[in-house]
Write a structure and sequence with these properties.
Layout: H1 16-24, H2 31-45, H3 49-59, E1 68-70, E2 73-75, E3 79-81, H4 92-98, E4 102-108, E5 121-124, E6 129-132, H5 141-149, E7 157-161, H6 172-183, E8 189-193, H7 208-221, E9 231-235, H8 241-254, E10 258-261, E11 282-285, H9 289-303, E12 308-312, H10 318-327, E13 331-334, H11 336-341, H12 345-360, H13 371-379
Parallel strand pairs: 3-4, 3-13, 4-7, 7-8, 8-9, 9-10, 10-12, 12-13
Antiparallel strand pairs: 1-2, 5-6, 6-11
Helix pairs in contact: 3-4, 5-6, 6-7, 7-8, 8-9, 10-12
């Protein structure tokens, strides 16, 4: 088992002051309203360049051990923001200043749409989870692309694109292609989202034949003479293992750059009492972590180092982030952990992850990518690969041969 340093409680990744504020005030307010207030405060508060520079100087990752080279980009940290936090491309610079290594904006659609009726986000605070049925509310790709073109490119920004709700399923290829075309010149990487449970028919696009046609349409929509835009696919946690294998094989066949795993789950049994109650929407946060790790491990065993894997779902502590990295993720993302952990969560994560990497004996976090997967491979009968040595979690022992 991978040694991830001292055991950290879930609450240790949120500051006491923020926990008090959350319990006393924020938890009493509508979740989506709080999200919008936070976005506005961050956008306004960090708009002056000197303020943003000061925040970045105090909180941004500086340890070279955290740097990751992937997708043709240099990430200052492997810890990023998942799609859904900055839906409109309005506060990614502020999120970057807080210490995130990258921000995935969206999900964007080719046309503006209001999303599903409110209320559409609820908290399960006792389980550190969120349930959302947002339905891709956004101002449309053209408007958000205009914002992104004006950015100073101080923060790596990926763009997550999805299906416009009113578009018929037979026209989905043209819909995605239009969205991709509009954002191509202002995104550092592009994610094709076929896994949200809140847009009718969308998850059906994860079938291999439909997905192949969709990826082809997206590629045809990108400028032929433009620079290479890394293309990734975002998948659901609720797929069967053989479906995950089929998508992994297809991704290799089509030559996409990576897979983002996973989106929210519709499996209510991950919540306490969920099997007996109605849950409308996708579940994110701590209840998703076991399945997210399972999917990551399966993908890594299937694709090896040939694709960039971005793991998202239930990551709350530096040890969990490192566990995903060792299981094969080059990068990781968070959403719900930021809600419960507060604005200093990325700074604390980076600081402690840096320490874990140092204690693990790696020269940098990128050296740790897939090391647990390599250990698993060395255990298989007939394997001649030398076995990596990881002490047992909680033993206090440090790897001596890294």
């Amino acid at each position: 088992m991978l040694h991830t340093g001292p055991v950290l409680s879930r609450s240790s990744t949120s500051a006491p002051v923020y926990r008090f504020l959350f319990k006393l005030v924020l938890e009493r307010l509508d979740a989506e309203t709080v999200h919008r207030l936070a976005a506005t405060a961050m956008r306004v508060g960090t708009h002056p360049r000197f303020v943003r520079s000061l925040v970045k100087r105090l909180l941004a990752p500086r340890d070279p051990r955290l740097r990751v080279r992937a997708l043709g980009l240099d990430f200052p940290s492997p810890i990023g923001v998942a799609a859904g936090v900055d839906k409109e491309g309005t506060w990614f610079e502020g999120l970057g200043a807080l210490g995130f290594g990258f921000v995935e904006v969206g999900t964007l659609t080719a046309r503006p749409q209001p999303g599903n009726p409110r209320p559409r986000v609820s908290r399960r605070s006792g389980e550190r989870a969120l349930v959302n049925s947002m339905g891709f509310p956004n101002s449309g790709a053209a408007v958000v692309a205009g914002r992104l073109r004006r950015r100073r490119r101080q923060t790596i920004v990926g763009v997550n694109i999805g299906k416009t709700k009113v578009v018929a399923i037979e026209d989905v290829g043209a819909d995605y292609a239009s969205c991709a075309r509009q954002v191509a010149g202002c995104a550092d990487y592009l994610v094709v989202n076929v896994s949200s449970p809140n847009t009718p028919g969308l998850r059906d696009m994860q079938a291999a034949d439909r997905l192949a046609a969709l990826i082809g349409a997206v590629r045809n929509g990108l400028p032929a003479d433009g620079p290479h835009l890394p293309l990734l696919i975002k998948i659901a946690p609720d797929l069967r293992d053989e479906q995950i294998d089929a998508i992994a094989d297809l991704a290799l066949e089509l030559g996409v750059d990576g897979i983002v795993a996973v989106n929210t789950t519709v499996d209510a049994t991950v919540l306490r009492g969920g099997a007996h109650g109605e849950v409308s929407g996708g579940i994110s946060g701590a209840p998703l972590k076991a399945r997210a790790l399972e999917v990551l491990r399966r993908l890594r065993s299937r694709v090896g180092e040939r694709l960039v894997l971005i793991s998202v779902g239930g990551i709350e502590t530096p040890g969990e982030a490192l566990e995903r990295i060792a299981a094969g993720a080059t990068l990781v993302q968070a959403y719900t952990a930021l809600v419960y952990g507060g604005p200093l969560w990325p700074w604390r994560m980076n600081r402690r992850l840096s320490r874990l990497v140092r204690e693990g004996g790696w020269s940098g976090v990128q050296e740790a990518v897939g090391t647990a997967a390599s250990e698993d491979a060395s255990r298989r009968p007939g394997s001649s690969k030398p076995r990596a040595r990881f002490p047992q979690a909680g033993s206090g022992q440090k790897p001596s041969d890294r």
